[in-house]
Amino acid sequence: MIEHDASLVHSDTPDGEEFAPITIEQNLVDEFMNDVREDSDGTESLMDFNDVARARVRREKACRPIDEFHQEIARGEMAIILGVWETTSKNKVGVPTKWIRRWIGHEMLPDNWRPTHKQGLWDTIQRAKAIRIAAAEMRKGADKMATTSAMPPASDSHINDNDERQALLSSSKKSSSCRIF
Q1: What residues does each domain of the chain span?
Q2: pTM of the predicted model, to two decimals?
Q3: Which of 15, 32, 120, 140 lies deepest, with the highest CB count within 10 Å?
Q4: What angle do CA 47, 79, 179 make, to 5 degrees?
């Protein structure tokens, strides 16, 4: 992965330094895992693109600004892993949180994990776009809440954005070859 400011689990580059630290900050790992909205169907906890978007918004708000290029890299990192490890429970499609914690918190693959499908570039681009759309929607909702001190009303644009994200993700299943191990 490529290190950058506003990382989900690393501190920003200290003033006067050229590179961001590579030491994993366990408190940031815990905060990242807290961004997952649990599914109440009693199955394994999964992290999806909305959870990643929530984490990106939180970290970008807490850190110094990063440019669009590095924002896209940050989304792409997680888009790859969401595609490689995608699992389906009764009510949610995502990645088991225990796998995410092991990978992002300890830089280790899940025990006994083996590739089950090809992860293509187009699929990764579509997932990163879904994360970007969800994050923008969350930022917009947070701005509305800050100015009105109330929950924003549901709107057709929310439905359309959600439909677009779902369409992006379902179309990404038709992805071409590029294996990531």
Answers
A1: 26-174
A2: 0.76
A3: 32
A4: 115
- Say whether 113 sits in a helix, a strand or coil: coil
State pLDDT tens for residues 54-64. Answer: 999 999 999 98
Q: Helix, strand or coil for residue 56?
A: helix
C-alpha to C-alpha distance for 110 and 155, rounded to whole angstroms: 40
Instruction: Let me know: does 88 contact 43? Beta carbons within 8 Å.
Output: no
Do 44 and 125 touch, CB atoms closer than 8 A?
no
Residue-wise pLDDT tens digits, 67-122 = 999 899 999 999 999 999 998 888 889 999 999 999 999 999 999 888 888 999 99
SS3 assignment, position 46: strand
